[in-house]
């Protein structure tokens, strides 16, 4: 395929995103005020609870089988690498540009999470449909591309709503204040409840009694070292009881609502339907008796991508005035997402290919490389809206990165195709 054809294939999806973003901006201006602050919050909630999980569920149920799961085992690892490396590079941006604490979660989230749903599911199948596609038969290529991109979208959603979500949550102003308050209360609690008696006459050892009266689940419970006297010696409590106590404390601390977000649940349900033949026969296909349920879920899922993209444009209104103020921060995120990560991805993926650890499919390798070169996830706009942390700044970052991505994604895609063939 000629360079200019590849260029057009990669350019069209990004232009579509920018056009829909512009529509969202128009709907949010005062003259129309269709996507005002209340409307944006309601739409964000709808995307989070309904549109995103149904899109993930329907895509996985239709395209993923047990054979695909075995072949594509490296994709979750590859996506995790993009998040971890992006976070490390994001920390460098935070340090070098001295990002305020309330925006650090936004910067780390944008550097870590790429648009693993919208763009791959448009770009990769579109490459297969072009005349003279470098990936072989059109029908086989398109089917495989849809399966690869769907799994990428599902895994990306899980990582975004568990990894990036918690990054923003950790640095959100309200959460930060709560953590500081809890730390202060814990210090006061320990200082007021720890007592030291005189030395035990029989052993000569000081006995410290820690009395934790806190009943709040947000407080970290101190593990007491309980000792008993037997024949003048100190005997520790059995390790089994200590481990069980630690496990119970850990289970109380885990926020299941964060781990099992609607998108995560949608991914689990979609994988079950796709992998289990009995469920697949019931729900998937023209002859399936319950196909109306699957078709309804698909219709809801189709609303996810345009809704999230509209929200990016609507949130842009709040942040345009701060473009100059946050210029170093924006440049840092653009460099990470559009230049540094894609270059690192080449070394990572090609190294794994040379070791023979992944499926030797050029289309699959192309998608793995593309996952490093994508602009920030559109869901970051939804996450910042949910926490009220850096909404305007997020809009500016999105606008800048997607503007640069018009060129960067196209050029990297062209290079990746040349590299895998």
Automatic annotation (TrEMBL):
<keyword id="KW-0813">Transport</keyword>
<feature type="transmembrane region" description="Helical">
    <location>
        <begin position="6"/>
        <end position="30"/>
    </location>
</feature>
<keyword id="KW-0812">Transmembrane</keyword>
<comment type="similarity">
    <text>Belongs to the auxin efflux carrier (TC 2.A.69.2) family.</text>
</comment>
<feature type="transmembrane region" description="Helical">
    <location>
        <begin position="363"/>
        <end position="384"/>
    </location>
</feature>
<keyword id="KW-1133">Transmembrane helix</keyword>
<feature type="transmembrane region" description="Helical">
    <location>
        <begin position="106"/>
        <end position="127"/>
    </location>
</feature>
<keyword id="KW-0256">Endoplasmic reticulum</keyword>
<feature type="transmembrane region" description="Helical">
    <location>
        <begin position="329"/>
        <end position="351"/>
    </location>
</feature>
<feature type="transmembrane region" description="Helical">
    <location>
        <begin position="254"/>
        <end position="276"/>
    </location>
</feature>
<dbReference type="InterPro" id="IPR004776">
    <property type="entry name" value="Mem_transp_PIN-like"/>
</dbReference>
<feature type="transmembrane region" description="Helical">
    <location>
        <begin position="296"/>
        <end position="317"/>
    </location>
</feature>
<keyword id="KW-0927">Auxin signaling pathway</keyword>
<feature type="transmembrane region" description="Helical">
    <location>
        <begin position="396"/>
        <end position="419"/>
    </location>
</feature>
<dbReference type="GO" id="GO:0009734">
    <property type="term" value="P:auxin-activated signaling pathway"/>
</dbReference>
<keyword id="KW-0472">Membrane</keyword>
<dbReference type="GO" id="GO:0005789">
    <property type="term" value="C:endoplasmic reticulum membrane"/>
</dbReference>
<feature type="transmembrane region" description="Helical">
    <location>
        <begin position="42"/>
        <end position="61"/>
    </location>
</feature>
<feature type="transmembrane region" description="Helical">
    <location>
        <begin position="73"/>
        <end position="94"/>
    </location>
</feature>
<feature type="transmembrane region" description="Helical">
    <location>
        <begin position="147"/>
        <end position="168"/>
    </location>
</feature>
<dbReference type="Pfam" id="PF03547">
    <property type="entry name" value="Mem_trans"/>
</dbReference>
<comment type="function">
    <text>Involved in cellular auxin homeostasis by regulating auxin metabolism. Regulates intracellular auxin accumulation at the endoplasmic reticulum and thus auxin availability for nuclear auxin signaling.</text>
</comment>
<protein>
    <recommendedName>
        <fullName>Protein PIN-LIKES 3</fullName>
    </recommendedName>
</protein>
<dbReference type="InterPro" id="IPR045033">
    <property type="entry name" value="PILS1/3/4/5/7"/>
</dbReference>
